[in-house]
Amino acid sequence: MKLEAARLYIRAPNWVGDLVMATPILRAIREAYPASHITVGVRPGHDAVLRGDRSFDSLHFHPRKLGFGGLRRLAAELARERFDAAFLLPNSFETALAAALAKIPRRFGYAASGRSLLLTDRLAPAMAGFRRIPTPMPNYWAELLRLAGIEARDLRPRLFVDDETAASVDRWLSERGIAPGDRFAVVAPGASFGASKLWRADRFAEVIDDLARREGLKSLVQFGPGEEAIANDIVRRSQTGALLADAPPLDLHRLKAAIRRCALLVCTDSGVRHYGVAFEKPVVCVMGPNDPRYTAANLERTIVVREDVECGPCQLKVCPLDHRCMERIPAERVVGAALELLRSPRAGPTATSESAA
Q: What SS3 class is residue 305?
């Protein structure tokens, strides 16, 4: 039976890519509760990802590190909103504790991280022994919604760009040598998750140069906070004049406009990858330590290039060995995947490119 609620709280995921993958979940809740007031809890700065989305009415910001005092303040803020129900998409103990301390009557979440008793409505994740069975994140959250009688029928992510931002980014691109009508790739080599997701700068430069020579494609090297050195190294190594997305760099909202205009996205398994999916762009994702099953959704125009190594997927932030999952991926395979997508825009629904160890 469908939940009755006039005021709803959705605690959104903490990572940018997960937040993009959660947009169909926000949409499904809005469609089920068109007249309810919906508040989404996000990390500071991540509101830029959701700008233009009408699936909610207000945002609530959650600091990265709360501590006991911060947790009490957060619970008090949530309590003042008098929410009828909360959907807790992250699996953390902290998110469930805050909602419980706020005395939100119905609290929906996965029974993980020792928080079962803090939830009024819980779902056990599928397990194989002591390990969770990897499931594409949109499907994982859609199962949770069914506890409240909500059916998420369309699990494609969507992002939005306003005309003013689009025009501003068009000017920004022109100033860097990408004129209206130019075909270009966005190359995003960073990964805030950790060093284990990074691919070598010389190989990114090789991909850029090969695509320039074979397809006449310009490349814009995008970077996030703390990734400046990686981006500069790639631009320095490129022989065909890769462009640096700086002075000023693109923030999470303006980046949407650049991705929407590009012909191709080449990236690591980072949040930018999901921007490309949301705008239905050809995406080549160079993946190392992460299990591809968590993001195996909406792959119609994505090719995941990875190595099936004996020690992976490990999900570790820093490789304790020789980084073989990324070191064994040559530039030629990434170029080949890019050419396949550029010349046949509609790739297969489960496009991957893997090699056995």
A: strand
189 neighbors 204 (Cβ within 8 angstroms):
yes
Residue with the bigger pLDDT between 129 and 121: it is: 121
Contact, 174 vs 251, CB < 8 A? no
Instruction: Give 310's contacts (C-beta < 8 A, 6+ positions apart).
Output: 357
Say what the pLDDT of residue 354 is: 45
Distance of CA 153 to the CA centre of its chain: 20
Rounded average pLDDT over 153-168? 98
C-alpha 305/C-alpha 308 separation (Å) is 10
Q: What tokens appear for 351 in the block?
A: 């496009």
Residue 337: burial class (beta carbons within 10 Å; 0-12, 13-18, 19+): buried
Q: Single out the residue of 316, 320, 308 nearest to residue 353, CA to CA.
A: 308
- To which H or E segment does residue 331 belong? helix 331-343
- Omega within 30 of 0 (cis) for the link into 157: no
Grade residue 192 by pLDDT with cuts at 50, 70 and 90.
confident
Evaluate the CA torsion angle 137, 143, 144, 148 in order and state its sign.
positive
Which residues does residue 265 pair with via DSSP β-bridges, in sequence order? Answer: 186, 283
Residues in a beta bridge with 346: none
CA 231 vs CA 74, 222, 267, 275, 324: distances in Å = 37, 7, 12, 19, 22
pLDDT of residue 194: 84
Confidence of residue 67 (pLDDT cuts 50, 70, 90): confident
Give, rounded to a whole angstrom, the gap between the first and last alpha carbons of the chain.
49
Residue 167 burial by Cβ neighbours in a 10 Å radius (0-12, 13-18, 19+):
exposed
In this predicted model, which residue has the larger pLDDT, 107 or 191?
Answer: 107
- DSSP code of 222? -
Q: Return d(Cα 152, Cα 149) in angstroms, integer.
A: 10
pTM of the model: 0.94
pLDDT in the model for residue 350? 40
